[in-house]
Amino acid sequence: DGPPEGVETYEAADSDNDGLNDKKEKELGTDPFISDSDGDTVEDKAEIEEYDTNPTKTDTDGDGLTDGEEIFLLNSDPLKKDTNSNGMSDEKEAEAGADPSKIDTDQDSLTDKKEILEYNTEPAKKDTDGDGLADKEEIEIGKTDPTKSDTDNDGLNDREELRVYSTNPTKADTDGDGFEDGQEVQNDYNPNGEGELKIETNS
Predict the structure, then answer these.
(1) Which of 31, 76, 93, 105 is nearest to 67 (CA)?
(2) 94-117, pLDDT tens digit by residue?
(3) Which of 158, 167, 159 has the alpha carbon at shortest distance from 198?
(4) How many CA atoms lie within 13 A of 82 on its CB side?
């Protein structure tokens, strides 16, 4: 005869209105009274039908990030610990400010992995120390510290030394006369030798 009119059968009932009936939720091991059983901000139905994640596990791939964080905030793969396959977990990249779905977040031609593990630079910022030189320029051309705006602490930032005064940004006293480059420039003396300061700006 079936149930009275207006009363759902157990098979058809969807107590939490998440699009999965209670019978299906019991089979899956999810909570039929909570639409997001594991509390990861992704509803059970979406985990099963859209993302193929585990609706009973907050962090399906075990990388330290919840499925919701990966799907809605980081655009990383909730099924892979290392979305971009660069040898670093998504969690480590996210903690450092990198995009775990990209190899080079700031597109400065230094991989995020190198920026984080080797150079200690910011993977989402092309010029970590804000001195006007890109991290890559400092590392490969100037041989300066990309985390310090004035590598040799002489009062001139690295960009000024390389592009304005043509001094050595890793040597406080380029011409070895006993006066630091910044001191000489401030007093209009030539930091590269004898005489007064002459500026030839290199773009």
Answers:
(1) 76
(2) 999 999 999 999 999 999 999 999
(3) 167
(4) 8
